[in-house]
Amino acid sequence: MVIGDVSGFSFLLFSDESNYNNSYYASICSVSLKADYLEFFEEKLLSLLKESNVEEISWKNLRGAKERFCCEKILKFIFDNIDSGNFRIDIIIWDMKRRKEIHSEGDIKILGRMYHHLFKNVSLKRWEEKGAWKFFPDRHTALNWRDHEKILDVLAPSETISISEVDSKEYPICQVADLFGGIGSFSWINAPKIKGLVTKDQKTLDDSKIPFSGSELEKIQVCKWLEQNCKKRGIEITRENGFQTKNPNLPINFWFFKQKDYRSEVKLSNYF
Q1: Which pTM was predicted?
Q2: Which residues pair with 13 in a beta bridge?
Q3: What does the pLDDT average to over 172-189?
């Protein structure tokens, strides 16, 4: 299903979150693009899904080779066009446990704040051009997007911003956000397995085998594919503790939210 009329908007941003209510690492991914690039992007993604005989691609449901091959086709399309300047992908990742130690907040409040960090960062810092923005977050019943739209107007008064929820099942660009968001949090939760410090044949001290699910093995392969192709295209990515990119201005940006970043929440505290 293709998004309807977006006339009057220069930029579009699709987003989805991953693991926002777990005890480890959570993430949100945004796929932002020039509005006139939407039709090509959506049609190509729909074609790849049909070609792979996959109705919807999601990180959670990546369990076998069929889904992995589809993910890799989508990632290849992303990398083949990443230097066009027509879109970028930003992923914010945060430590849930550390966050709750610093701020006595519930999962939903934290999620709302992180959405604002990401939306502001992408719309104000990562695109040189200015223009009206339309945000399309994946539908999340716990967030009142009408209130968040008003907050964004206060925090970014120079931008024209509108928010409309969408169902990721119907919009492939949201599925790309789901894919990269899943990679972001998974790379931190499973860093030892991705780095090979823990292998599927390894055992614990009590001689029991360390569990590796088939889904984990497929996901690790996707993470490694992404890492290798980032390096080929000059996007320096590290995975000491999980994926991070060194230059946030490059078109794929894994941003781990650190302690120093909390200073930017002073304004946000007035609205939550």
Answers
A1: 0.89
A2: 32, 135
A3: 95
